[in-house]
């Protein structure tokens, strides 16, 4: 293709609102343009990359016998009302009415849609297992879209769903999909980690997240520096063994703690370590008050709490709500004498405390020498890991320390079980002739955000660097002077030779200075650049490998074989 015919409006200056490298370079190189906050147009170069990513996905989905199809992006609200997510999904759900005043949504994901389809058309276990998928725009009304394609209100996603008659079928589908994802991300050329993830609004019992380490990542990957353990920070666990408490119980004492509300203030006031102070945070879980207690040196992990409670919603309680019930505000709360209607959850570390300090549920006062069972009845079933892991702590496997790194979520796979099939009536007759709920899995890849993930990991100071499998073109031919007959001749011969070999070629036929052409070539980052310059009359050109910035001078007759070798080394 001739570059003069290509819509690729490069910029000389980076827009001021572009915060991260991928956003800056994709704008500067003419790959994307904003239409509204969190919504982008994908210009021809970006679309070519997307097409190649999607083709890789299709090939690996086909390899595990997944069926590609397409469902509407606009969905009737009734489906989501049946599953309960219409109310619980939150403000990110786009809701609207049509002219008949019927409620609709823009689909952020399609578990309900595909489950309803299976409910209508699949009646026997003999038709299962079945895997279906689509590649389609999704919509989430992000409160603060940012970082270009990394957090948007409209994005392209591959979503897949498995339907099985039994748990073994789900386990196999989950394994097949995990294997396919590994092949997809390997072929794309990304560095990534498969980590323990949170199912979140998806529901279900098990999930695994694929995260690409990158400075712009909004997630934190916590991994062991000695083993393969890795998890999203929301799910990461540190190592802890419960202790048999042998300390002699001291007399419970009510003490004044004026103006001491934070853990640091109480620690300083009483001259004790934070590990001897119980932190109590009040939450509302599905309209029920819950008190969560950790040691003062840890933060409460809301994801772990919500998962433990299997709550649809979890929010920090309003202070006036807490004060109305307990008679005290934040900073003076504790587990002693909690009303019966407040559920008490205690982190395992806090459950091993003895003679500890906590708020007395009276402003400006704390209890000293609290002991479980004597002062607060604590059920074993309400003890768990409710803390946020810390970098440097021993990993849950006990064999290394936790290391934190930012990451970009690029894929997520979930074992949903019967979360959706039960409420939407997706049942089949099993081999015994009895109705049984289909067992489901859900599997997503953020297709459009893969553009940003690649750029964040691969780009350098000069511009983009596309891995060969997803590059918009394989080879960039740059004749320095298009008025030079030999350069035009050699560029034309190269285009014909390389195109005949099945390679995609971009020829810079613009009437621009050599410096501009070279800068643009580095900016758009095609794997191979062939410069046709002063030695064109001798049939000699310069081949540059963009990823390594190495230059090789070679004869025209050597180019085809050499380019093929260089490209294969990048795949």
From TrEMBL:
Where would you say this protein principally sits, based on its record? Answer: cytoplasm
- InterPro entries in the record: aa-tRNA-synt_IIb (IPR002314), aa-tRNA-synth_II (IPR006195), aa-tRNA-synth_II/BPL/LPL (IPR045864), Anticodon-bd (IPR004154), Anticodon-bd_dom_sf (IPR036621), Pro-tRNA-ligase_IIa (IPR002316), Pro-tRNA-synth_IIa_bac-type (IPR004500), Pro-tRNA-Synthase_IIa_type1 (IPR023717)
The record's keywords, sorted A to Z, are: Aminoacyl-tRNA synthetase, ATP-binding, Cytoplasm, Ligase, Nucleotide-binding, Protein biosynthesis
Tell me which SUPFAM superfamilies the record gives: Class II aaRS ABD-related (SSF52954), Class II aaRS and biotin synthetases (SSF55681), YbaK/ProRS associated domain (SSF55826)
Looking up Gene3D superfamilies in the UniProt record yields: Anticodon-binding domain, Bira Bifunctional Protein, Domain 2
Q: What is known of its domains?
A: Consists of three domains: the N-terminal catalytic domain, the editing domain and the C-terminal anticodon-binding domain.
In terms of NCBIfam families, this protein maps to: PRK09194.1 (NF006625), proS_fam_II (TIGR00409)
- SUBUNIT field: Homodimer.
This chain's protein is named Proline--tRNA ligase
What's the source species for this entry?
Leuconostoc inhae
């Amino acid at each position: 293709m001739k570059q003069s015919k290509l819509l690729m409006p490069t910029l000389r200056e980076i827009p001021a609102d572009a915060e991260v490298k991928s956003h800056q370079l994709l704008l500067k190189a003419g790959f994307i343009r904003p239409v509204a906050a969190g919504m982008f147009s994908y210009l021809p170069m970006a679309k070519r990359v997307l097409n190649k990513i999607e083709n890789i996905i299709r090939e690996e989905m086909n390899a595990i016998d997944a069926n590609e199809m397409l469902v509407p992006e606009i969905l009737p609200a009734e489906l989501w009302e049946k599953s309960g997510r219409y109310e619980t999904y939150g403000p990110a759900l786009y809701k609207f009415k049509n002219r008949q005043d019927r409620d609709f949504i823009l689909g952020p994901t399609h578990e309900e849609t595909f489950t309803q389809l299976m409910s209508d058309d699949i009646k026997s276990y003999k038709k299962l297992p079945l895997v279906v998928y689509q590649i389609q725009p999704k919509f989430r009304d992000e409160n603060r879209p940012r970082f270009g394609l990394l957090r948007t209100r409209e994005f392209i996603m591959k979503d897949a769903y498995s339907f099985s008659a039994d748990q073994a079928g789900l386990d196999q589908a989950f394994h097949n999909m995990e294997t396919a994802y590994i092949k997809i991300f390997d072929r794309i050329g990304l560095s990534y980690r498969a980590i323990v993830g949170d199912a979140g609004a998806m529901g279900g019992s098990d999930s695994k997240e694929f995260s690409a380490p990158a400075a712009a990542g909004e997630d934190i990957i916590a991994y062991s520096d000695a083993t393969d353990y890795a998890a999203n920070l929301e799910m990461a666990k540190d190592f802890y063994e419960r202790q048999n408490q042998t300390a002699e119980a001291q007399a419970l004492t009510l003490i004044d703690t004026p103006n001491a509300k934070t853990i640091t203030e109480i620690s300083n006031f009483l001259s004790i370590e934070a590990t001897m102070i119980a932190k109590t945070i009040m939450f509302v879980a599905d309209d029920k008050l819950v008190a969560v207690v950790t040691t003062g040196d840890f933060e409460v992990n809301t994801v772990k709490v919500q998962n433990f409670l299997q709550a649809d919603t979890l929010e920090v309680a309003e202070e006036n709500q807490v004060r109305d019930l307990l008679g005290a505000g934040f900073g003076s709360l504790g587990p002693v004498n909690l009303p019966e209607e407040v559920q008490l959850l205690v982190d395992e570390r806090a459950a091993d405390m003895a003679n500890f300090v906590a708020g007395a549920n009276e402003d400006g006062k704390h209890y000293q020498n609290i002991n479980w069972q004597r002062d607060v009845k604590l059920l074993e079933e309400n003890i768990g890991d409710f803390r946020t892991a810390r970098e440097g702590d021993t990993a849950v496997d006990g064999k290394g320390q936790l290391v934190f790194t930012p990451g970009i979520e690029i894929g997520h796979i979930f074992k949903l079980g019967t979360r959706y099939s039960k409420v939407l009536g997706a049942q089949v007759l099993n081999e015994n002739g009895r109705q049984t709920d289909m067992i489901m899995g859900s599997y997503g890849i953020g297709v459009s955000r893969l553009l940003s993930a690649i750029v964040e990991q691969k780009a350098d100071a000069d511009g983009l660097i596309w891995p060969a499998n997803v590059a918009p073109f394989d080879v960039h031919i740059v004749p320095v002077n298009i008025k030079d007959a030999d350069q035009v001749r050699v560029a034309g011969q190269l285009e014909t030779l390389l195109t005949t070999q099945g390679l995609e070629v971009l020829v810079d036929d613009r009437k621009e200075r050599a410096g501009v052409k070279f800068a643009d070539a580095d900016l758009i980052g095609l794997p191979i650049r062939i410069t046709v310059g002063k030695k064109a009359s001798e049939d000699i050109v310069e081949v540059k490998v963009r990823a390594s910035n190495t230059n090789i001078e070679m004869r025209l007759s050597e180019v085809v074989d050499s380019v093929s070798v260089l490209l294969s080394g990048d795949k």
